[in-house]
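Hey, sorry to bother you again with one of my protein questions. A protein chain has come my way and I'm curious about its shape. I'm sending you its amino acid sequence along with the backbone structure tokens. I owe you a coffee for this, so here goes:
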Amino acid sequence: GAWALACVRRRCGYAALEGAMRGAAAAVELAVSVGFEGEGLEEARARLEAVRHELEKRKARESLLDVMRGDDIEALWPAIDVATECGVEASVLRDARVKVTALEMAGAMEPGADPETLEEAIEKAKAEGVAMELIDAAKRRLREMDEDTYRDFIASELSTAMQGVDTAALEKSVEEAADVDVGAEAVAAGRRRLAQLRIEA
């Protein structure tokens, strides 16, 4: 299948890079052993370093992607650190951080966790771009854990949404605020701001 094909391509890619690295290393070693000095030697050393770096980056990337397929948060952090050091592309690192943040939030939803920890995890998840359905599930769990903490959280979300221009986010915040009864004036203010944004759109 597609996964098997990807594995074959990855092995071929590694084999080509490792072959290139061995070739470059042998060329440098030979030049040094016969006392050759010059621009060509420096170029060979630069090629060797470039190939070594690319091989390390590919291995770090694949290792991180393998770890991301599971839910071992303790393995994810070191894999992210290595991938960062090796220059793995930002999009992969971002996906890994989102995965870690989602796992942290899930842990904060477990029985025995405190509402403040979950509240902080939700805020972090929102900032990192965790899927909204996961955030909504965490908010429902927060409400189950402590209605007052949830109410304060929703009030804060409403205040933040009113300062922005995202009508969908504000509409959702107004609905949640009305549902949990954060206060008639706050809800009314949210609705006025929503009306203003729709008129100005």
Summary: The CA atoms of residues 163 and 194 lie 11 Å apart.
